[in-house]
UniProtKB/TrEMBL annotation:
InterPro entries, A to Z: PFD_beta-like, Prefoldin
One GO molecular-function entry: unfolded protein binding
Alphabetical UniProt keywords: Chaperone, Coiled coil
Descriptive protein name: Prefoldin subunit 6
Family: Belongs to the prefoldin subunit beta family.
Coiled-coil annotated spans: 7-34
GO CC annotation, single: prefoldin complex
Length: 90
């Protein structure tokens, strides 16, 4: 195989690796943003009293939600995001 063909093949492989890296970085940034957002929500929940109402935005509507359920949902999302952040890349 001539050197020029080897260089061309190496260049194509490098471009594929760059594209893969870009996708992984974008996915990680999305997960980081979601994690931070959910951490902020969790901190806000810690300041609630049992008398406080919690609402969830569903489309354009705010729907009242049970406080314990809302806290549980946030904890579940945080655990899911953590597990996604530390999945080994194959």
């Amino acid at each position: 195989m001539p050197a020029e063909d080897k260089l061309q093949q190496a260049s194509v492989e490098f471009q594929k690796l760059q594209a893969d890296l870009s996708r992984v970085v974008e996915a990680r940034q999305r997960l980081d943003a979601q994690f931070s957002e959910n951490e902020l929500v969790k901190k806000e929940f810690e300041q609630l009293t049992p008398e406080n109402d919690v609402y969830k935005l569903i489309g354009p509507v705010l729907v009242k939600q049970d406080q314990a359920e809302a806290k549980s949902n946030v904890d579940t999302r945080l655990e899911f995001i953590k597990s996604e952040m530390f999945v080994p890349i194959s």
